[in-house]
Amino acid sequence: MTIFAAYMGRLLAIDYGTKRTGIAVTDELQIIASGLTTVDTSSLVAFLKDYISKETVDKIIIGLPKQMDNAASESEVYIQKFLIKLEKEIPEIPVERVDERFTSKMAFQTMIDSGLSKKQRRNKALVDEISATLILQSYMAAQ
């Protein structure tokens, strides 16, 4: 008996920030979400184009920041501008949004639970990368 797994591309998640952006990806079978890196937001599109030139990406998942009353957060204005640029620069990859409420708090708690020191927990880039991973896990769990 032969088991055939259709080749799929990765899912890539973005925790968008005005200064830094956390990025997470799945494996090719879209089973495991892992933090990839944090990049300066000013070079985000260039980073994504380079990554996509080397890896197959089926979908980009971007956090949707909301306030407790379900209203859009202030950062949504910047994300909308980024989405327009992304659609123009990388139109071939579909984009989906995922509610990202609590991901920063959950990322910080994850860092505490995994035994990281206070100094390591102050690493905002690591928080952004973990937040992107949580956004990706949330998307995968909903599918």
List the SSEs and their pairings:
Blueprint: E1 10-15, E2 20-26, E3 33-40, H1 44-54, E4 57-64, H2 76-89, E5 95-99, H3 103-113, H4 118-121, H5 124-142
Parallel strand pairs: 1-4, 4-5
Antiparallel strand pairs: 1-2, 2-3
Helix pairs in contact: 3-5
Number of helices: 5
Question: Would you identify the regions where 5 or more consecutive residues have pLDDT less than 50?
Answer: none
Order of helices and strands: EEEHEHEHHH
Structurally, the number of domains stands at: 1
CATH fold group: Nucleotidyltransferase, domain 5
Helix content: 40-55%
Give the biggest beta sheet. Answer: 5 strands, mixed
The CATH homologous superfamily is called: YqgF/RNase H-like domain
- Could you give the count of β-strands? 5
Radius of gyration using CA atoms only: 15 Å
Shape: globular
CATH top level? Alpha Beta
Spatial ordering of strands, largest sheet: 3-2-1-4-5
Structural class call reads alpha/beta
Instruction: Give the CA-CA distance, first to last residue.
Output: 28 Å
Mean pLDDT, nearest integer? 87
Level-2 CATH architecture: 2-Layer Sandwich
Strand content: 15-25%
